Amino acid sequence: MSGVDSPLLLRMRDFADFMIGCVGPILIFLATVLISGIAFIHFTALVPYYSPEISVVYLLHMVWSVWLLFNIGFNYYKVVTTPPGCTADIPQELYSEDLLVQIRTEDAPQRGTGFSRWCKSCKRVKPPRSHHCHICKQCVLRMDHHCPWVGRCVGMHNHKFFFLFMFYLWLACVWVFPLSLYPLYMADITAWWGDEITIQTSMLLAFGLTLSISAALGGLMFWHLYLIGTNQTTIEFYYNNQMKKIYKGRGQVYQNEYDLGWRKNWQMFFGIESASPIWLAWLIPSTSLPHSWGMDGSSFPLRNGEGDSYAHMNNNVDHLV
Ligand SMILES: [Zn+2]
Ligand SMILES: [Zn+2]
Protein backbone atom coordinates (compact mmCIF):
# COMPACT_ATOMS: atom_id res chain seq x y z
CA MET A 1 0.00 0.00 0.00
CA SER A 2 1.46 3.36 -0.95
CA GLY A 3 1.73 6.22 1.54
CA VAL A 4 -0.97 8.14 -0.33
CA ASP A 5 -3.47 5.31 0.14
CA SER A 6 -2.86 4.81 3.86
CA PRO A 7 -6.13 4.97 5.88
CA LEU A 8 -4.86 7.81 8.06
CA LEU A 9 -3.90 9.99 5.08
CA LEU A 10 -7.18 9.19 3.34
CA ARG A 11 -9.12 10.17 6.46
CA MET A 12 -7.13 13.41 6.71
CA ARG A 13 -7.80 14.14 3.06
CA ASP A 14 -11.53 13.45 3.51
CA PHE A 15 -11.58 15.79 6.52
CA ALA A 16 -9.76 18.53 4.57
CA ASP A 17 -12.21 18.07 1.66
CA PHE A 18 -15.14 18.29 4.09
CA MET A 19 -13.76 21.52 5.61
CA ILE A 20 -13.16 23.09 2.17
CA GLY A 21 -16.75 22.16 1.23
CA CYS A 22 -18.10 23.77 4.45
CA VAL A 23 -16.08 26.95 4.09
CA GLY A 24 -17.46 27.64 0.56
CA PRO A 25 -20.66 29.52 1.58
CA ILE A 26 -18.70 31.53 4.19
CA LEU A 27 -16.13 32.64 1.58
CA ILE A 28 -18.89 33.55 -0.91
CA PHE A 29 -20.55 35.66 1.78
CA LEU A 30 -17.20 37.25 2.70
CA ALA A 31 -16.36 38.03 -0.95
CA THR A 32 -19.81 39.60 -1.46
CA VAL A 33 -19.46 41.75 1.69
CA LEU A 34 -15.92 42.91 0.78
CA ILE A 35 -16.82 43.77 -2.82
CA SER A 36 -19.99 45.59 -1.72
CA GLY A 37 -18.07 47.49 0.98
CA ILE A 38 -15.35 48.70 -1.38
CA ALA A 39 -17.97 49.62 -4.00
CA PHE A 40 -19.88 51.63 -1.37
CA ILE A 41 -16.72 53.56 -0.37
CA HIS A 42 -15.89 54.14 -4.03
CA PHE A 43 -19.30 55.49 -5.02
CA THR A 44 -19.99 57.57 -1.90
CA ALA A 45 -16.51 58.94 -1.12
CA LEU A 46 -14.00 58.51 -3.95
CA VAL A 47 -16.12 59.51 -6.95
CA PRO A 48 -17.41 62.73 -5.24
CA TYR A 49 -13.87 63.45 -3.97
CA TYR A 50 -12.51 63.67 -7.52
CA SER A 51 -15.65 65.31 -8.98
CA PRO A 52 -17.56 67.25 -6.28
CA GLU A 53 -19.95 68.75 -8.86
CA ILE A 54 -21.95 66.89 -11.51
CA SER A 55 -19.83 67.21 -14.62
CA VAL A 56 -18.80 65.19 -17.67
CA VAL A 57 -15.90 63.69 -15.70
CA TYR A 58 -18.28 62.74 -12.88
CA LEU A 59 -20.72 61.08 -15.29
CA LEU A 60 -17.95 59.21 -17.13
CA HIS A 61 -16.50 58.02 -13.84
CA MET A 62 -19.92 56.83 -12.69
CA VAL A 63 -20.67 54.98 -15.94
CA TRP A 64 -17.24 53.30 -15.89
CA SER A 65 -17.60 52.32 -12.23
CA VAL A 66 -21.16 50.98 -12.65
CA TRP A 67 -19.97 49.01 -15.69
CA LEU A 68 -17.16 47.38 -13.70
CA LEU A 69 -19.39 46.62 -10.72
CA PHE A 70 -22.13 45.17 -12.90
CA ASN A 71 -19.68 42.82 -14.63
CA ILE A 72 -18.15 41.75 -11.33
CA GLY A 73 -21.59 40.99 -9.84
CA PHE A 74 -22.96 39.30 -12.96
CA ASN A 75 -19.97 37.01 -13.50
CA TYR A 76 -19.63 36.15 -9.81
CA TYR A 77 -23.30 35.23 -9.64
CA LYS A 78 -22.93 33.14 -12.79
CA VAL A 79 -19.81 31.25 -11.70
CA VAL A 80 -21.34 30.49 -8.29
CA THR A 81 -24.66 29.29 -9.74
CA THR A 82 -23.52 27.54 -12.94
CA PRO A 83 -22.55 23.88 -12.47
CA PRO A 84 -19.29 23.07 -14.27
CA GLY A 85 -20.81 19.94 -15.84
CA CYS A 86 -20.31 16.40 -14.62
CA THR A 87 -19.98 12.97 -16.19
CA ALA A 88 -23.55 12.10 -15.20
CA ASP A 89 -24.49 14.44 -18.08
CA ILE A 90 -22.74 12.09 -20.54
CA PRO A 91 -24.85 9.05 -21.46
CA GLN A 92 -22.89 5.83 -21.01
CA GLU A 93 -24.66 4.43 -24.06
CA LEU A 94 -22.21 6.54 -26.02
CA TYR A 95 -19.64 3.83 -25.38
CA SER A 96 -19.82 0.32 -26.79
CA GLU A 97 -19.97 -2.64 -24.36
CA ASP A 98 -16.49 -3.76 -25.44
CA LEU A 99 -15.04 -0.32 -24.85
CA LEU A 100 -16.68 -0.09 -21.42
CA VAL A 101 -15.15 -3.43 -20.40
CA GLN A 102 -11.78 -2.34 -21.71
CA ILE A 103 -11.84 1.02 -19.89
CA ARG A 104 -13.11 -0.58 -16.66
CA THR A 105 -10.39 -3.20 -16.56
CA GLU A 106 -7.33 -1.33 -17.85
CA ASP A 107 -4.57 -0.40 -15.42
CA ALA A 108 -4.36 3.14 -14.13
CA PRO A 109 -1.42 4.97 -15.72
CA GLN A 110 1.65 5.79 -13.71
CA ARG A 111 1.39 8.93 -11.61
CA GLY A 112 2.21 12.02 -13.69
CA THR A 113 2.06 10.25 -17.04
CA GLY A 114 -1.66 10.23 -17.73
CA PHE A 115 -5.14 9.94 -16.33
CA SER A 116 -7.33 6.96 -15.64
CA ARG A 117 -10.33 6.62 -17.98
CA TRP A 118 -12.57 4.99 -15.36
CA CYS A 119 -13.73 6.64 -12.11
CA LYS A 120 -13.97 4.11 -9.29
CA SER A 121 -16.01 6.53 -7.15
CA CYS A 122 -18.58 7.55 -9.80
CA LYS A 123 -18.40 4.15 -11.52
CA ARG A 124 -18.54 5.90 -14.87
CA VAL A 125 -16.26 6.59 -17.82
CA LYS A 126 -14.17 9.72 -17.40
CA PRO A 127 -14.26 11.52 -20.77
CA PRO A 128 -11.06 13.25 -21.90
CA ARG A 129 -10.16 16.27 -19.71
CA SER A 130 -12.55 15.32 -16.90
CA HIS A 131 -11.36 14.60 -13.35
CA HIS A 132 -12.89 13.48 -10.09
CA CYS A 133 -13.31 16.19 -7.45
CA HIS A 134 -13.18 14.77 -3.93
CA ILE A 135 -14.95 17.84 -2.55
CA CYS A 136 -17.84 17.91 -5.06
CA LYS A 137 -17.80 14.09 -5.10
CA GLN A 138 -18.26 13.87 -8.86
CA CYS A 139 -16.24 13.81 -12.06
CA VAL A 140 -16.16 17.31 -13.48
CA LEU A 141 -16.08 17.95 -17.23
CA ARG A 142 -12.95 19.77 -18.47
CA MET A 143 -12.05 20.36 -14.83
CA ASP A 144 -9.73 23.23 -14.01
CA HIS A 145 -9.71 23.28 -10.20
CA HIS A 146 -11.97 23.39 -7.16
CA CYS A 147 -12.34 27.00 -5.99
CA PRO A 148 -13.52 27.57 -2.39
CA TRP A 149 -14.23 31.25 -3.23
CA VAL A 150 -17.02 30.16 -5.59
CA GLY A 151 -17.95 27.09 -3.56
CA ARG A 152 -17.67 24.67 -6.47
CA CYS A 153 -15.44 23.35 -9.20
CA VAL A 154 -14.41 25.50 -12.12
CA GLY A 155 -14.92 23.44 -15.26
CA MET A 156 -16.38 23.30 -18.72
CA HIS A 157 -19.54 25.40 -18.24
CA ASN A 158 -18.42 28.02 -15.71
CA HIS A 159 -14.73 28.62 -16.46
CA LYS A 160 -15.68 31.56 -18.68
CA PHE A 161 -17.57 33.28 -15.84
CA PHE A 162 -14.72 32.53 -13.43
CA PHE A 163 -12.20 34.17 -15.74
CA LEU A 164 -14.40 37.22 -16.43
CA PHE A 165 -15.08 37.66 -12.70
CA MET A 166 -11.32 37.69 -12.05
CA PHE A 167 -10.71 40.04 -14.96
CA TYR A 168 -13.27 42.69 -13.93
CA LEU A 169 -12.43 42.44 -10.23
CA TRP A 170 -8.75 42.91 -11.02
CA LEU A 171 -9.55 45.86 -13.30
CA ALA A 172 -11.68 47.48 -10.58
CA CYS A 173 -8.98 47.01 -7.92
CA VAL A 174 -6.30 48.42 -10.23
CA TRP A 175 -8.62 51.40 -10.68
CA VAL A 176 -9.51 51.97 -7.02
CA PHE A 177 -6.19 51.53 -5.22
CA PRO A 178 -4.32 54.43 -6.89
CA LEU A 179 -7.43 56.63 -6.52
CA SER A 180 -7.60 55.95 -2.79
CA LEU A 181 -3.92 56.72 -2.22
CA TYR A 182 -4.08 60.52 -2.68
CA PRO A 183 -7.02 61.27 -0.33
CA LEU A 184 -5.46 58.88 2.16
CA TYR A 185 -2.22 60.83 2.04
CA MET A 186 -3.96 64.22 2.19
CA ALA A 187 -6.40 63.03 4.89
CA ASP A 188 -9.05 65.41 3.53
CA ILE A 189 -11.79 63.09 2.24
CA THR A 190 -15.34 63.38 3.56
CA ALA A 191 -18.60 61.47 3.13
CA TRP A 192 -22.14 61.71 4.50
CA TRP A 193 -21.93 58.39 6.33
CA GLY A 194 -19.10 58.90 8.82
CA ASP A 195 -16.74 61.14 10.74
CA GLU A 196 -13.13 61.85 9.77
CA ILE A 197 -11.59 58.84 11.55
CA THR A 198 -14.20 56.37 10.23
CA ILE A 199 -13.71 57.53 6.66
CA GLN A 200 -9.91 57.53 6.89
CA THR A 201 -9.96 54.00 8.36
CA SER A 202 -12.34 52.85 5.60
CA MET A 203 -10.09 54.40 2.96
CA LEU A 204 -7.06 52.65 4.43
CA LEU A 205 -8.96 49.35 4.38
CA ALA A 206 -10.09 49.90 0.79
CA PHE A 207 -6.56 50.81 -0.27
CA GLY A 208 -4.98 47.76 1.44
CA LEU A 209 -7.58 45.36 0.08
CA THR A 210 -7.55 46.62 -3.50
CA LEU A 211 -3.75 46.73 -3.57
CA SER A 212 -3.39 43.14 -2.33
CA ILE A 213 -6.20 41.86 -4.58
CA SER A 214 -4.59 43.62 -7.58
CA ALA A 215 -1.32 41.79 -6.95
CA ALA A 216 -2.69 38.35 -6.02
CA LEU A 217 -5.59 38.23 -8.47
CA GLY A 218 -3.51 39.80 -11.24
CA GLY A 219 -1.12 36.84 -11.13
CA LEU A 220 -3.98 34.33 -11.23
CA MET A 221 -5.86 36.23 -13.95
CA PHE A 222 -2.84 36.43 -16.28
CA TRP A 223 -2.11 32.78 -15.57
CA HIS A 224 -5.62 31.84 -16.77
CA LEU A 225 -5.19 34.17 -19.75
CA TYR A 226 -2.20 32.07 -20.77
CA LEU A 227 -4.04 28.78 -20.10
CA ILE A 228 -7.05 29.87 -22.19
CA GLY A 229 -4.82 31.01 -25.07
CA THR A 230 -3.04 27.66 -25.13
CA ASN A 231 -6.17 25.56 -24.40
CA GLN A 232 -4.97 23.96 -21.19
CA THR A 233 -6.59 23.56 -17.80
CA THR A 234 -4.53 24.05 -14.64
CA ILE A 235 -4.41 20.25 -14.22
CA GLU A 236 -3.34 19.74 -17.83
CA PHE A 237 -0.60 22.34 -17.54
CA TYR A 238 1.30 20.14 -15.07
CA TYR A 239 0.62 17.03 -17.15
CA ASN A 240 1.77 18.78 -20.35
CA ASN A 241 4.94 19.96 -18.65
CA GLN A 242 5.70 16.39 -17.58
CA MET A 243 5.05 15.19 -21.14
CA LYS A 244 7.38 17.85 -22.54
CA LYS A 245 10.19 16.47 -20.39
CA ILE A 246 9.47 12.87 -21.42
CA TYR A 247 9.39 13.79 -25.11
CA LYS A 248 12.52 15.90 -24.79
CA GLY A 249 14.29 12.88 -23.29
CA ARG A 250 13.32 10.95 -26.43
CA GLY A 251 14.54 13.75 -28.67
CA GLN A 252 10.95 14.63 -29.68
CA VAL A 253 8.80 17.73 -29.28
CA TYR A 254 5.56 17.41 -27.36
CA GLN A 255 2.50 19.35 -28.52
CA ASN A 256 -0.68 19.88 -26.55
CA GLU A 257 -3.21 18.13 -28.76
CA TYR A 258 -6.06 20.48 -27.75
CA ASP A 259 -4.19 23.66 -28.70
CA LEU A 260 -5.90 24.89 -31.90
CA GLY A 261 -4.18 28.26 -31.95
CA TRP A 262 -4.75 31.38 -29.86
CA ARG A 263 -7.78 32.73 -31.73
CA LYS A 264 -9.69 29.44 -31.99
CA ASN A 265 -8.91 28.59 -28.37
CA TRP A 266 -10.42 31.90 -27.29
CA GLN A 267 -13.49 31.49 -29.49
CA MET A 268 -14.12 28.03 -28.11
CA PHE A 269 -13.58 29.14 -24.53
CA PHE A 270 -16.16 31.93 -24.85
CA GLY A 271 -18.45 29.85 -27.04
CA ILE A 272 -18.67 32.33 -29.88
CA GLU A 273 -19.08 31.68 -33.56
CA SER A 274 -16.05 32.29 -35.72
CA ALA A 275 -17.80 35.18 -37.51
CA SER A 276 -18.65 37.10 -34.31
CA PRO A 277 -16.31 39.80 -33.06
CA ILE A 278 -14.20 38.26 -30.29
CA TRP A 279 -14.66 41.25 -27.95
CA LEU A 280 -18.43 40.64 -27.85
CA ALA A 281 -17.90 37.56 -25.73
CA TRP A 282 -16.26 39.25 -22.79
CA LEU A 283 -17.14 42.93 -23.03
CA ILE A 284 -20.86 42.32 -22.96
CA PRO A 285 -22.25 40.18 -20.12
CA SER A 286 -23.63 37.04 -21.67
CA THR A 287 -25.27 33.93 -20.28
CA SER A 288 -24.22 31.83 -23.28
CA LEU A 289 -22.24 28.81 -22.21
CA PRO A 290 -18.72 28.29 -23.46
CA HIS A 291 -18.03 25.36 -25.75
CA SER A 292 -21.23 25.92 -27.63
CA TRP A 293 -19.57 24.47 -30.72
CA GLY A 294 -21.72 21.38 -30.42
CA MET A 295 -19.55 19.94 -27.66
CA ASP A 296 -21.11 18.10 -24.73
CA GLY A 297 -17.87 17.42 -22.83
CA SER A 298 -17.45 13.86 -24.08
CA SER A 299 -14.98 14.90 -26.78
CA PHE A 300 -12.91 17.87 -27.86
CA PRO A 301 -11.48 18.89 -31.23
CA LEU A 302 -7.81 18.08 -31.70
CA ARG A 303 -5.01 19.80 -33.61
CA ASN A 304 -5.09 17.05 -36.22
CA GLY A 305 -8.75 17.78 -36.99
CA GLU A 306 -10.21 14.78 -35.16
CA GLY A 307 -12.41 14.72 -32.09
CA ASP A 308 -10.98 13.13 -28.96
CA SER A 309 -13.73 10.76 -27.94
CA TYR A 310 -13.52 7.32 -26.34
CA ALA A 311 -16.69 6.44 -28.22
CA HIS A 312 -14.66 6.16 -31.40
CA MET A 313 -11.85 4.16 -29.86
CA ASN A 314 -12.04 0.50 -30.70
CA ASN A 315 -8.57 -0.60 -29.81
CA ASN A 316 -6.42 -0.16 -26.76
CA VAL A 317 -5.15 3.20 -27.89
CA ASP A 318 -2.16 4.36 -25.91
CA HIS A 319 -3.44 7.89 -25.48
CA LEU A 320 -1.56 8.52 -22.28
CA VAL A 321 2.09 8.76 -23.29
ZN1 LIG B 1 -15.71 10.50 -10.36
ZN1 LIG C 1 -15.11 20.43 -6.78
TrEMBL record:
<dbReference type="InterPro" id="IPR039859">
    <property type="entry name" value="PFA4/ZDH16/20/ERF2-like"/>
</dbReference>
<dbReference type="InterPro" id="IPR001594">
    <property type="entry name" value="Palmitoyltrfase_DHHC"/>
</dbReference>
<feature type="transmembrane region" description="Helical">
    <location>
        <begin position="55"/>
        <end position="74"/>
    </location>
</feature>
<dbReference type="Pfam" id="PF01529">
    <property type="entry name" value="DHHC"/>
</dbReference>
<feature type="transmembrane region" description="Helical">
    <location>
        <begin position="161"/>
        <end position="185"/>
    </location>
</feature>
<keyword id="KW-0012">Acyltransferase</keyword>
<protein>
    <recommendedName>
        <fullName>Palmitoyltransferase</fullName>
        <ecNumber>2.3.1.225</ecNumber>
    </recommendedName>
</protein>
<feature type="transmembrane region" description="Helical">
    <location>
        <begin position="18"/>
        <end position="43"/>
    </location>
</feature>
<keyword id="KW-0812">Transmembrane</keyword>
<keyword id="KW-0808">Transferase</keyword>
<dbReference type="GO" id="GO:0019706">
    <property type="term" value="F:protein-cysteine S-palmitoyltransferase activity"/>
</dbReference>
<feature type="domain" description="Palmitoyltransferase DHHC">
    <location>
        <begin position="115"/>
        <end position="238"/>
    </location>
</feature>
<comment type="similarity">
    <text>Belongs to the DHHC palmitoyltransferase family.</text>
</comment>
<keyword id="KW-0472">Membrane</keyword>
<dbReference type="GO" id="GO:0016020">
    <property type="term" value="C:membrane"/>
</dbReference>
<feature type="transmembrane region" description="Helical">
    <location>
        <begin position="205"/>
        <end position="228"/>
    </location>
</feature>
<keyword id="KW-1133">Transmembrane helix</keyword>
